[in-house]
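Q: I'm building a small set of examples for a reading group on sequence design. Run inverse folding on the following structure and report the sequence directly after it, with nothing in between.
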């Protein structure tokens, strides 16, 4: 009796297991026959995996109770998209909703494959990234050296340009102003002084002879007086004023431009304005084409 009851219990367990498995298979088959799932399978069979994945995701959103779409989208993500993280998520989601499925062992192996593939892809990316970093560092060093050499060349060119500019300014100034020579002031002739008239000798009187000479008459007062010669008055020497140069105004000229051409310094325009107050006015700076200006020679 005991043996019979024990056998009956085992048979009941086997029946429950078989019924459970068949129930899981029935659910998968039933879910696969839905309209959206059939359309997704047709897309997958045609090779349009992107559209198939999109339809499986729409089925999951529209029918959260369905488990089969998770397995199908996981297989596509694993095999064709190589999106291993999303594939692992959907594998686990299917096992969560179908823990008694006959596909448990296969899905577990798939999860391990996805994990290994993900780690391998990350390692290859790190190697590629490391090599690219090294290349970027080498390129940076090369560019730094080139930049230093270019800066040195620029500095040398700036020095040469400054020297050339100074020479051009000097030559230009000489071409404009160098032709006008400042007249030297002539020295006035110096008249010779008139000859000094001879002076009568002065009689020297010794102190001991004073008493003896008191009784004598002193000779003419002219004997003891010395006349100072009168010097002729000197004439004042007048120096000639420096000559004044003239300049005819051209199109585009201004006082500062003319000062630069004549003196090599545009800030000397005030000298030209002062010399032409009679035509420009006290503060006038406007010039006209063809106008003749006086240019003081410095």
């Amino acid at each position: 009796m005991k043996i019979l009851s024990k056998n009956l219990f085992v048979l009941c367990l086997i029946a429950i297991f078989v019924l459970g498995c068949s129930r899981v298979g029935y659910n998968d088959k039933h879910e696969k026959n839905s309209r959206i799932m059939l359309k997704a399978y047709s897309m997958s069979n045609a090779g349009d995996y992107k559209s198939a994945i999109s339809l499986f995701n729409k089925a999951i959103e529209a029918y959260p109770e369905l488990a089969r779409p998770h397995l199908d989208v996981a297989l596509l993500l694993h095999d064709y998209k190589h999106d291993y993280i999303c594939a692992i998520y959907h594998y686990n989601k299917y096992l969560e909703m179908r823990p008694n499925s006959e596909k448990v062992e296969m899905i577990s192996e798939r999860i391990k494959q996805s994990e290994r593939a993900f780690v391998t892809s990350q390692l290859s990316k790190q190697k590629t990234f490391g090599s690219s970093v090294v290349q970027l560092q080498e390129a940076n060093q090369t560019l730094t050296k080139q930049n230093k050499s270019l800066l040195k060349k620029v500095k040398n060119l700036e020095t040469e340009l400054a020297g050339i500019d100074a020479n051009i300014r000097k030559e230009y100034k000489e071409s404009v102003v160098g032709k006008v020579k400042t007249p030297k002031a002539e020295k006035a002739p110096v008249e010779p002084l008139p000859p000094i008239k001879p002076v009568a000798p002065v009689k020297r009187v010794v102190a001991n002879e004073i008493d003896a000479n008191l009784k004598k008459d002193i000779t003419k007062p002219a004997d003891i007086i010395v006349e100072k010669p009168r010097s002729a008055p000197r004439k004042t020497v007048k120096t000639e004023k420096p000559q004044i140069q003239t300049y005819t105004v051209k199109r585009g000229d201004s006082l500062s431009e003319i000062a630069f051409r004549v003196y090599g310094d545009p800030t000397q325009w005030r000298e030209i304005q002062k010399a032409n107050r009679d035509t420009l006015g006290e503060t006038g700076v406007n010039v006209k084409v063809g106008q003749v200006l006086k240019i003081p020679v410095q």
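The CA atoms of residues 79 and 162 lie 71 Å apart.
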